[in-house]
Amino acid sequence: MDFQHKPVLVAEVLELLDPARRFTIVDCTLGGAGHSFAIRELLPVDSWLVGIDQDDDALATAGNSMAGYENVKLLKGNFGQLKTLLEDWKGPIDGFLFDLGVSSWQLDNPQRGFAYQHDAPLDMRMNQEALLSAADIVNNWSAREMTGIFRAYGEEKWSSRVAAFIVKARELKPVETTGELVEIIKAAIPAAARREGGHPGRRVFQALRIAVNSELENLRLGLEAAIDICAPGGVVAAISYHSLEDRIVKRIFKDRAVGCICPSELPVCTCNHKPEVKILTKKPIGPGKEELESNPRSRSAKLRAASKLGSNES
After folding, report:
1. Which of 174, 190, 213 is a domain's end point?
2. How far is CA 61 from CA 51, 57, 145, 195, 227, in A?
3. Which long-range contacts (CB under 8 A, 24 or more apart) does 293-298 make?
4. pLDDT of residue 201
5. 34 and 94 share one domain
6. How far apart are the C-alpha atoms of 206 and 155, rounded to whole Å?
């Protein structure tokens, strides 16, 4: 399969990042390079686009399709390692984009094991060199550990029951495919509950994917690093697709936008703590009607952004 991914909220991302005014923009989730193409078209000729991805297929496809562009640098890695990946970069970096979650190509490629619609090996690794897979979790983790991630990362009401059914099933044979896991989940969730809230495997599959790829911890690390690295006047933008991601983005931006942190009973500020960012999106930006019609997968997208303040700004 060709690596294809229809980027969401492109116009909104370009308006917030304003590439024509930037020195270097880092696309922390390169994917199919849809956002990167749009950004590179607007960057000044002497400015740079840096694309980061942990998926070899994404990097190979982007490398081929962007071969004619100058001042493009592609790096393999997870954005949780952002400071390490960019530690040797020369010059200011004044734009960061995070397009979170799993790409359409990864979902639609059965062999990657992300989707409950396809029967495929139970994998879900975004970086195929990583050691931990969804099969490892399902076949080796305790019922208590699985219950914990299904509840925390999937907000699955029937977490303990699904975990118990998995343990019982793997006593007979290892759970090796997505199809086998879907059948176990269906058996575990009562019929009345299966008729509500979409596919019964959706929440468990989301939880496994997040756990396999340490997505939420990497998001915290990457977003904090982007704010630290970003030059004054630069912008950090993030597109999330579920409430767990969006809450992290919202909280980090809010925390870094705080000024005085003195106790409320003090009459004057003595901490001299300054806000580091200004939040640009009071409410998250979602797709418009036209985009929803042309790309249904954009329906859950939420875009938030913040600009880096200088030392004399507040």
Report:
1. 213
2. 12, 6, 37, 39, 29
3. 295/6, 295/8, 297/6, 297/8, 297/104, 298/8, 298/9
4. 93
5. yes
6. 9
**Could you tell me which residues come within 8 angstroms of residue 89 by beta carbon, excluding any fewer than 6 positions away?**
24, 50
Structure tokens given for 108: 């639609």
pTM of the model: 0.91
Instruction: Give CA–CA dist 9/260, Å, rounded.
Output: 34
Residue 290: CB atoms within 10 Å: 8
CA 187 to chain centre: 31
Query: What single string gives the DSSP state of each residue in 11-57?
Result: HHHHHHH-GGG-SEEEES--TTSHHHHHHHHHS-TT-EEEEEES-HH
The DSSP bridge partners found for residue 50 are 26, 73
Q: Lowest mean pLDDT: which of 13-22, 226-235, 288-297? A: 288-297
Cα 196 versus chain centre, distance: 26
Quote the number of domains for the chain: 2
pLDDT digits (tens, 9 = 90+) for 242-281: 999 999 999 999 999 998 888 888 888 888 889 999 999 9
Is 314 contained in some domain? no
Burial of 25 (0-12, 13-18, 19+ CB in 10 A): buried
Tokens coding 261: 């942190």
Is residue 189 included in any domain, yes or no? yes
Q: How many CB atoms lie within 10 A of CB 82?
A: 26
306 Cβ contact partners less than 8 Å away, ≥ 6 residues apart: 227, 235, 236, 253, 256, 257, 277, 278, 279, 280, 281
Q: What is the maximum alpha-carbon separation in the chain?
A: 68
According to DSSP, the residues that pair with 99 across neighbouring strands are 239
**Cα 151–Cα 103–Cα 41 angle in degrees, nearest 5:** 140
| CATH of residue 177 | 1.10.150.170
Q: Which CATH number belongs to the domain containing residue 54 in this structure?
A: 3.40.50.150
Overall average pLDDT of the 11-21 stretch: 97
Tell me, yes or no, whether 68 and 15 share the same domain. Answer: yes
pLDDT of residue 1: 47
